[in-house]
């Protein structure tokens, strides 16, 4: 029996090679999108973990004491704690490269680590430099430094070469003792780094007895939060203890939410692929009705008929899955780069590449391809088995009236929309908006269920109102699409899903970009930003960030054309056991020249109240996470213990995902002491030429620490470029989903035309010309595409609201202002028209050129 079914399947495919090819390609595209995202997400998360391990390895707790560091004697105290498995000292030194011809002026960060314990800090053997026994002396030499391979290549250096650097006005000649692989990068997001033995670094750069921070690895059975509480009573109160910021559950959950969003979007291509297979198998059933009748008359059972068409779909899905594996691996390279750029800018992941494809991922892709095909073939296969032999052999019964089915579809649509509304109210699960995605799925189901409803309404409208007043071809086309609502609605479903995703995601992205643009324009009003060189590319706030001495404020104020300087300090703080960004600035100056974008209230008044009431303002994300409202108090950990500050305002912030607390610099210095600034926000006098003042600032500060100046326009442009790169991958996935949708449209229109060969031949025999036949096909295509586009746009609008107010809010906590980008809607209509044209062009030409006599005999 299996051999007979297989021969029949091969005969079906042989007589319809083009349709089989379209189906295979559609499944392959869907599978490739899924596999590419799976591979890219795996590489991103692995690189994220390597980025975390690059500084502290398994260390999940960090001890620090501001920019001044701490005495190294404290490490012995920490190591004696029973909950500490090991503690690793870290020293960070910033120097300037001064060697002629080798990127002179660049800042190089040298990390001092205990090389004796380097393997323990980095457990992977591949991530440790090879150190033969005869090189121990050279290893601990004060002049030996290890560079990253990429940076060494950029400098033109190799092992044994000399690198001249300057630190605190003193020149040093360093010898390259070895090169580190890309996974050994100690900096997040940059290659300009080096390591050396911490004792050598302390001696060479006059930091004897000082540490920058200590990375602590807890005992396996000890919880990090519990050990932090124990160490707080174990060490002096001015030592800050926190969970390593890149190991916080919050950052990891944000990254997982980002990846989950991409995975769900890639699944849309698979969903559209289901419709594509459904169309193909429905056509196969219609095309082989007489064959089904003959086989049933000869005694073939219903389950064998069902198995025949399921086997055909499974083979097409299997071939599509194999093709999808090949294309998915190819596509994964590009998507990995795009996702890596986005996640790198958000979470500090270094450059990525697909290193290895596990065989089980390929097996998963093939299984998914076959599963999609079988799912799409279930209904047509069941219909084939239920056709009575007499009905199948009767001429003229290839199309059945199904006009009554639209009422059932209407109820399905109502239930789906109601379920979507209910699911959208559910809380997230572990930071993942599961209810939101389920609501989006129900929304798409409801949109596709409206297809038969529209077909039924057109049927009623055609009988009651149309009466041929639109002309012969439009009337015949309307009659055709309403004659078989099941087939037509499946065609529309592919369009609805593809365009709904395009419109929904497009509106969400454009709304987000518009919101960020407003936020930038209204909050970033300083003319020039002055910052240390290493401030560029920092991926998170760190206490060890090189700061600008406050004494330089007077120096900058003396520059002609400068009206005011706002010293902005950003460091890490702790609120209710959570790591947040803690900001101190001259609020009075900021209130007079710039503003925050508050959820409610005027920026100037709120900032003045914050100064007078010795309070703070908090970001929307943090307020939502802690349930804060204006007038509440927030407990912030200070060197002298927790202190409750009144919350005077809640502002929108899209620069941090962990939350931000802002206070006046006088209030900050009262609790934390005198601390240097992270950057200077410089405001110019009216009518001053920015380039001239900028050069003057760079000139007066050139003999101090290495600095960089950034104009307001450059900063805004960079932020928006990062935003655009972050969402570039979503456009790629939209294109993939729409490609599958277009294939479905072409496939379905060919099904409709092929089934009606006798009808079209009859029209030709009655005198209808070839151009009129072509026009009829184009009218049908435009009807189907137009109805699908209308539904797709409406569902897309609803989906965009769901994405903005539920999925985004639960994933990231940001408020996005809804805007309606007409270009997105126009693009959706254009795509629908293009799909209608492409879907009708070839079949229309083919239908108009067929033999009348041959087609009159076709059933």
Task: Give the SSE map.
Elements: H1 2-15, H2 17-56, E1 61-64, E2 70-71, H3 74-79, E3 84-97, E4 107-113, H4 118-121, H5 136-139, E5 144-148, H6 149-155, E6 162-167, E7 170-180, E8 193-197, H7 198-204, E9 210-211, E10 213-218, H8 224-232, E11 240-243, H9 249-287, H10 289-297, H11 302-347, H12 359-386, H13 389-393, H14 406-423, H15 434-466, H16 472-483, H17 485-523, E12 528-532, H18 552-557, E13 562-575, E14 578-585, H19 587-593, H20 603-612, E15 616-619, H21 620-626, E16 633-638, E17 641-651, E18 660-664, H22 665-672, E19 679-684, H23 690-700, E20 707-711, H24 712-726, H25 728-755, H26 757-765, H27 770-812, H28 822-848, H29 852-856
Parallel strand pairs: 4-8, 5-7, 14-18, 15-17
Antiparallel strand pairs: 1-10, 1-11, 2-9, 3-4, 3-6, 3-10, 5-8, 6-7, 12-19, 12-20, 13-14, 13-19, 15-18, 16-17
Helix pairs in contact: 1-11, 2-9, 2-11, 2-12, 2-25, 9-11, 9-12, 9-17, 9-25, 11-12, 11-24, 14-15, 15-16, 15-17, 15-27, 16-27, 17-24, 17-25, 17-27, 17-28, 19-20, 25-28, 27-28
